Amino acid sequence: MEESPLNVLRRFAKPRAAAHPVAPERCELCRAVLPASHRHLLEVASRQVICACDPCALRFEGVIGGRFKLIPRDPRALPGFRLSDAQWANLAIPIGLAFFFFSTPEGKMTAMYPSPAGATESLLPLTAWEELVSENPPLGRMEPDTEALLVNRLGPTPSHYVVPIDACYELVGLIRLYWRGLSGGDDLWREIGAFFARLERQAGGLREGARA
């Protein structure tokens, strides 16, 4: 089974010790050794993503409230998504890449965009988001905290997905890891392109129309 890109990112980000093998990744709840592909939980208050074995992870499936939430596995493409240039401008995002999710602790929609320094929060006008939901009903079905709208307007054709929140933090980590110089560098843009190509493959047949 293909190794999770999030695991690969973590391995790249950690210093390598030539004389010692890499320790196996373990469940952060019970310390069981994890396979390359495993589930993630979100610690809601801190927005921290933690790795979990299936028995631990499934304890939080469908749980409302509490410290942890189970993060869904699958992204969904939104091929008919409606977002005009004027609407994008009203969302007050300074770059063409951002993700949007409902934060339960804060009781509001949150807009964030990746940067060399990490994830930066943007002030999201509530009326702008409500207008977007009215034109794109799948947004109203996103899971609070654990799913996000991911918008990519960096290329000639914008793309839109509902994704697990750990995919958004993976993208943030890629940008922090690979950014070089003033414009990011060729390696960064290759990694971003590979990330979205992989996301499109993962979405596969999981597509939602923008209209109800």
| Cα radius of gyration in angstroms | 18 Å
- How is the main sheet built? 6 strands, antiparallel
As for the number of domains, it is 2
Number of helices: 6
Mean pLDDT: 86
Low-confidence stretches: 1-8, 10-18
Separation, N- and C-terminal Cα atoms? 35 Å
Spatial strand arrangement across the major sheet: 4-9-8-5-6-7
Shape: globular
- Give the % helix: 25-40%
Structural class: alpha+beta
- What sequence of helices (H) and strands (E) makes up the elements? HEEHEEHEEEHEEHH
Number of strands: 9
In terms of DSSP E residues, the strand content is 15-25%
How does this model look, in words?
With 212 residues, this protein is α+β, with helices and mostly antiparallel strands. The chain has two domains: 66 residues, no CATH class; 128 residues, no CATH class. It is built from six helices and nine strands; from the N terminus they run αββαββαβββαββαα. The strands form two sheets. A six-stranded antiparallel β-sheet has the order 4-9-8-5-6-7, covered by helices on one side. It has a three-stranded antiparallel β-sheet with strand order 2-1-3. A hairpin with a 2-residue loop joins strand 6 and strand 7. The longest helix is centred in the C-terminal third of the chain and has 18 residues. It is globular, with a radius of gyration of 18 Å. The protein starts with a helix and ends in a 9-residue tail after the last helix.
